[in-house]
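Typical record was shown:
=====
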Amino acid sequence: MTGFSKRVLYNMAKIYANQLQIAEDYIRLKPFIAVTITDFVMFDETQKIINQFVFQEKEEKFEYLDEELQLIFIELPKFKKKISELENLADKLIYFLKEASSFDEIPPILGEVSEIELALNFANQAGMNSEELEIADRRAMALQDERGKITFAEEKGKEIGRQNEAIALIMRLLKKRFGELETEETISKIENLTIEELENLGENFLDFNSITDLENWLNRQSLFFS
């Protein structure tokens, strides 16, 4: 037990200290709460399932000025409630932690807590052999790929929409200034400009005195990006 308790303190101190890089100010440190879940009884002197510890003065028991470090222990063997007796969120989470290995699926009363489904997935993975884990990983990667494709398509669609709007605006401005563009080559060059190039064209076209100035500008863009 002594080695275990020292490991808990060591991990807490290490994580707390590792928040800072070299020469960073201590004010950047954030409070840290270490939650330890045990399948054995640590504190025989109490029947409480959840015990919380903070720094306090040894004799008069007042707490340290800042609750920077806290230790919370959850002792599963002390929890005796049946599933029909669960009353609150803490009861449901502790019951799940204690009984997760026996679940094939989440009981309805626990399904009300969204985090439990995620935790059960982790628990199921812990019981998989290497082949099953590989299959699960491949499925997860395939799902992420599909989500990535959807996100990319959505962003690409938005970009194309912005580009089309910019092209339409530029064409209206040019038509108002110089009349209809006569050559398909000039129109094609404008339609192939990126959004950034279209924005540059919008800024520069007021300096054009003729279609020739526009064509020279487009040719310079083609040479620059060729």
Q: What stands out?
A: The helical segments are 2-17, 89-99, 108-111, 114-126, 130-178, 184-191, 195-204, 211-225. The chain has a mean pLDDT of 79.
